[in-house]
Amino acid sequence: MKQLSSLLLLVVLSSCLRLDSNLYNLEDKITEYKLDGNAGLQDFVLDASYAVQDSMKHLFTLDSKGSGDDKSYKIYALYIGEIEKIKTDTVILYCHGNKWHMDFYWQRAKLLAHTGGKHRYGVMMMDYRGYGLSEGNPTEEGLFADVDACMAWLKSKGMNNSRLVIYGFSMGSAPATKLCASPRSLTPNKLLLEAPFASADVLAADGAGLNVPGSYVTNLKLNNGELIKEVKQDFFWIHGTVDNFLNMKTHGEIIYKNHGGNYKEAHRIEGADHGTVPATYGFKDYLASIEAFMIR
Domain count of the chain? Predict the structure, then answer.
């Protein structure tokens, strides 16, 4: 048994199953953003009723510099809505998942722009450094700095704490949780997490089929399960019951249980996999649940 365990550990350590690779999936290099013109693989594609007019799409770059950076990096961001209304609108800051770039997540951001009706809320997302056309290489601190760069931009346009909501999907749950627990430019008023991961250790154990410490396969320190204890904001958790990447019971349930605030709600979507929660739930029901949480 000891020899078998050692062999399995060696396989894990020598394989491509590194958390770095699972979290930072930089495939599908691009030369431009296509948004609705993206013909590549997507989790779902919305029908024409969810269209966003061109005047409401704003693609631009921001300078991002985190602690330990010796220079700033240009990251790409997208705002859906009227920029001049940021000083009065509520905005959903969307932190996307580990693979690909904003074209892949455009349908999700566009869907969120229909929460409570078309353009009731502004929506902003970004490509972290190393993703899409953003400069640099992905790092844990870079995730936090890039999302905070978006908060700083929103603040410069008149955003305040009470009107900022942050939404993290999959890997995006890390910066969303971190910047609620330890705010920087702004303090989000509410936190929404879809298919979040509990920690690097749990992801390593799930992926390896062994109770292998995360330090053996990654140098990341991401631990949402502990950080969420420091989050006092109202919390909305949504997760598919058959998620084959971030198991609902070993990841999402831990985060939901550990939330440190006074209000939280859980949405366990029967039959949904990692990328299919909105479609399996039904777009109208998905948006209605988010809207009810936003206005409570």
Answer: 1
